[in-house]
Structure formats: C-alpha cells, structure tokens
Amino acid sequence: MRDGRLVTPEQILDSALRNAEVLSSLRDDEAERLFGKTLTLSRGEWPTGDLSSKARCTLLALSIGITYLLGDALAAAALGYWFMQSQCPHVLLGFPPSEE
C-alpha cells in the first residue's frame, strides 16, 4: 500500500525500471570509485564500503520491488526494513542522514 492505496504490479515494475535507470546512470562513478578502492586494497589498506549511499539505497529499492513482484512479501518487507534503517529515504531525497 502507498498512501492508503494498493500499489499495482505495474506501478512496482515502473518503479523498478526507474531504479534500474538510476543505477545505470551511477555506473561510471561507481566503477571509478571501485577502481580506486581496488588500488587501495593492493597497497594493503582497507577502504570503507564498496558502493555510494545513493547506489546502495537505489539497489535496495530495486530489490524490494523485484522481491515483491516475485511474490515474497515477507522478504520484501525485510528489505524495506533495511531500507528504512539505512536512512535511504533521506539519501534518495538528497538530505543528509539524521544523527540518530
């Protein structure tokens, strides 16, 4: 449900396609970031996470939609919980995460 209305499979698919487009647009920046981290690892240093917050949150949103479309509402809900706990709504709207 979204805003008290049932979300149709077509709306979920449309959202998934938009998220896939966002991930595609992030590809070059993410590849450059991962290349830099690979160089850091080759020097024996340990870098922080592999994906930017925006890429991670978009990937989570895409995963939620696909999991729901595949009929596993429980797994989609678990991914949704992870999405919310990762402050993804703030990240995807361009706001800094809260300090909580």
Gyration radius over CA: 16 Å
Overall average pLDDT: 84
Helix content: over 70%
Sheet of most strands: none
Order of helices and strands: HHHH
Number of strands: 0
| Shape summary | elongated
Distance between the termini: 27 Å
Number of helices: 4
Uncertain stretches: none
User: Strand-residue fraction?
Assistant: under 5%
Structural class, judged by helices and strands? Answer: mainly alpha
Based on the model shown, name its key terms.
100 residues; mainly alpha; 70% helix
Report a brief summary of the structure.
By secondary structure, this protein is mainly alpha-helical. It has 4 helices and no strands.
Describe the overall structure.
Helices cover 70% and strands 0% of the residues. It is mainly α and 100 residues long.
Layout: helices, strands, pairs:
Layout: H1 9-42, H2 53-69, H3 73-85, H4 88-93
Helix pairs in contact: 1-2, 2-3
